[in-house]
């Protein structure tokens, strides 16, 4: 039942004042210009759904507008003021317009638009992300509705399709996608039931380790035969994470091999990378890092055989991987939303992703560490990080070396990896200073360790 | 005879039953000779009945030279004299049935003792009437793909017999020759053995070592089609003559292979789920659910009328054949730091020492045992938290006398201490002065009383916990294992915290909107399920069992 609504124009000013209240809106203020460039309408009368692509100044957004009669202001909008777009009149009568993802009935209509024939009984809205909204149907499939859209293929669609086609199984390959004109608008994927984020698993492991320390650090009265007291040690802890870390490393390498097969391998001059990182290094003060040592890392990078440059994940850390009953899965290939599609697509070293994960192990150990007092835990936290980084690398190298995505010489691998860890820590320092000054000690410690 | 069992005939009783595994030698000594006996079990049925178990499982009590704990049977038709005689067995079976308890026993189908008269006859020469009752060969290289199970003691599956001047085949110890099931006379003889015991009243058998009945070139000699055919024949015969009998298979294999022993519901009624057990321990140690949910995801559906047997510990070692090398190293590392604790490819510990005598963990593991799909099997002594003695040889460490009282010999026997088959535990933590049934009975807060209570609740919900479907629920918190059991119109929600720390969890219970979770131990109604994810907080190692019930109407 695709229909038309005569008085579109009335919606435009409502949208212009509504958009800036959305998390996924990238501008600072109301757009100076707003234009509906694509629309599809389902339903005559109430409820109706209008799927729109709008251009607001220079950015594009997808808006799914729900329309119901103004008098029957629906229950699901209670306490969701940011979801209400406004009131206007259509043929069916006076309508209230709102973000349709909050409307269970229309969420099922959206599912049908993306995957005709797909049916579901229940739907729930998952927490809103920065650039999309996710709807989970029957705990079985997840629909990601891209809110900020750009002309050209969305990387999530592009990469999950390619990885699925390569037979890489640790990714939720798309079941259906919705595309209109130049824009990828939505992707339907299997919902990974029973999954936990790598981040929460890592913290579980660390809390177990610190808990082991708590129960063993107090010297007990000893009788004739004191029981041998085990010293807290990540290798001996019940919650040891290294098996998981090694399997995660292997999955990561499998992803890189599949990406290389799908998108190709390119030759690059490592001096380009070194120059770029050196430029970022300029923002770091001399008290924060030994600049000579940092530049030495970049010099070493510039001389290295860098191995092939490939399409990578781009924003890889423990929050982007989930553990399920069938092992690890990699999520969210959209890359950093702040970058242009061009940048997100450009090939680079897979060791950039590896560096991201190693930094994430450091963050996990440091964050869990902040939950507790006691200096003696520092050593334990470092031991956990070392053990799991080593295990991750071991699992990674085994698969990646055979898959031909690394420099041939292991010394070069470590040189490239160190440079990307440096780059990541520089980025983290800037980010923490801007948004979370309490956490700046984490990247600072990393910078000092890398340059010592 | 008034017989509570036949009065409530229910051929599928085993799907709701709780089994209690008894070592005849170790339970109670009625004639004061230092060894437990059948009369002793009869005299102690009060305990098992009070606890709330439904079915006894007796370890082998047949005539035997006892070189393998009685699994080396030298006469299937008589009782080991230390344990009593056939009259004692009949009395025990009758007394069980009078109380509404059922009773099954071990039966070894695969092999006999080398002291069995069948083998003694077979070995005499190559032409006697039983010459072909065992697997003989001039050559000790046949069936090279069959693995050696007891790697600590055996170097080959073939052993030389100096009398017959041939090799004989044995999958287990060299003093346990395998019967030759290709011989129809052997099949008939074993069917006669089974029928003899069913006529005496046994309610079924735990079939020891069933995967190995046949040997075939080019195979590993496990799970062969011929083995399944024989088991189906056995099932058909006992269904016809003794309905309501249960065949419980010991097939230490992956679940995907084990399900073959159910056939199409026309082979074994029950099989042990071996891999689940080490995974439960691993999940608690790792404080995350994946070791359990992984194996549940790999467990296929089973035919109607079939049931898994699940357990935490039993008389054998913690079986590690079923875990990957990584996990086996991990289990050794976590649970068996002393190399003496390693036996074959497993770990010989009792439950309490395995969990560092942590009561909360023991309760959590039993809560899992009683709520995951399958019929739970308890091991004698674990209900009071008995320990083990790792300095005893072979698997005796977990076979010490049941600790009844703080009196002499743990109240197990009035014989002289030196006469006991094994010394009772006397260490300060697990010794019988601290850990015994009498003390547990007197202490209302004891683990024993908790066990009795949880079994009451399990019995009240026996249909849904015994036969219900399983659905694992998503939970972002990896330390929480939540699942639904559903049977007909009833739904039970089980939520388990595998971590020692308190944990929150949000569950997607949207489809149960307007239902109210009622906690099963106290019947306390929890807030109704609404539109938001259902938030629960759990104490360290805590668990909940809820029934999801319709909301009571608001008006009184």
Short description:
The complex is a heterodimer of chains A (452) and B (556). Chain A is of the alpha+beta class and 452 residues long. Chain A has 12 helices and 14 strands.
Question: What would you note in describing this structure?
Answer:
The complex is a heterodimer of chains A (452) and B (556). Chain A is α+β, with helices and mostly antiparallel strands and 452 residues long. Helices cover 41% and strands 18% of the residues of chain A. Chain A is built from 12 helices and 14 strands. Chain A has helices at 11-18, 104-114, 155-165, 198-216, 242-263, 270-281, 291-303, 341-345, 351-370, 377-403, 410-435, 441-450, and strands at residues 34-42, 48-56, 59-69, 84-90, 93-99, 123-125, 132-137, 141-146, 148-149, 176-180, 183-190, 196-197, 321-324, 327-330. In chain A, strands 1, 2, 3, 4, 5 and 9 form a 6-stranded antiparallel β-sheet that branches. In chain A, β2 (48-56) and β3 (59-69) form a beta hairpin. In chain A, α4 packs antiparallel against α10 and α9 packs across α11. The longest helix of chain A is centred in the last third of the chain and has 27 residues, at 377-403. Chain A starts with 10 loop residues before the first helix and ends with a helix. In chain A, 43% of the residues are buried. Chain B is an alpha/beta fold. Helix content of chain B is 27%, strand content 19%. Chain B contains 17 helices and 23 strands. In chain B, the strands form 6 sheets. Chain B has an 8-stranded parallel beta barrel with strand order 1-2-5-9-10-11-12-16. In chain B, β10 (246-249), α9 and β11 form a beta-alpha-beta unit. In chain B, α10 runs antiparallel to α11 (290-297). Chains A and B meet through β12 and α4 of A and α10, α11 and α12 of B.
